[in-house]
Design brief:
With 201 residues, the chain is of the alpha+beta class. The chain folds into 2 domains: 155 residues, Roll (Pnp Oxidase, Chain A), CATH 2.30.110; 36 residues, no CATH class. The protein is 28% helix and 27% strand. A 7-stranded antiparallel beta sheet has the order 2-1-5-6-7-4-3, covered by helices on one side. A hairpin with a 2-residue loop joins strand 3 and strand 4. The longest helix has 9 residues. The chain is globular and about 55 Å long. The protein starts with 5 loop residues before the first helix and ends with a helix.
Length: 201
Amino acid sequence: MTDLTSGDLATIYPAPTPRVIAKVRPAIDRHARKFIGMSPFCVLATSGPGGRADASPRGGNPGFVHVISDSQLLLPDRSGNNRIDSFKNITAGAGHLQLIFFVPGIDETLRVTGTGKLSADPALLATMEEFGKLPRAVLSIAVSEAYFHCGKALMRSKLWARDIQVERDVMPSVAAIIHDQTGLGEPEAQADIVARYQTQL
């Protein structure tokens, strides 16, 4: 297999249309604000020193990411696995990040680019209680770009189609998988994991 070069790409892909270039906005407009307000899920991508990359799922009630202004978002951090790879990248690197927001039932997604800083200020945390708990930290995002993606990827995947959803038991529980991979922990049943997660949201 021969690796493609940047020059090769121009022979495979046509240049983007002026509209595709122009849709990139320098801030959050009313359409992006509405979309973020409806979104219960996003993926946070970060990069750190040495090119270390991380992509992390984030979720909450619709609008869990707060639009403070056209140029600032606040993302509260909820209970997770404590690896905090995203936050290590942000604090050790230049803070560059991207978010992709999803709204169930809508095939288009919203990409937001910016730089992030972390805060654990008690007064700020107190404004973001959710699921009966305060976040442990808040990621403040200075927005530099925002634009909508077309829906082709989600249409191809049929992500929102109920008829392709699989039964959970086609895969072992994540605890069973990790126990099989590492020999650590206990191979908990999926029902036990879900019950425990419900107390940790």
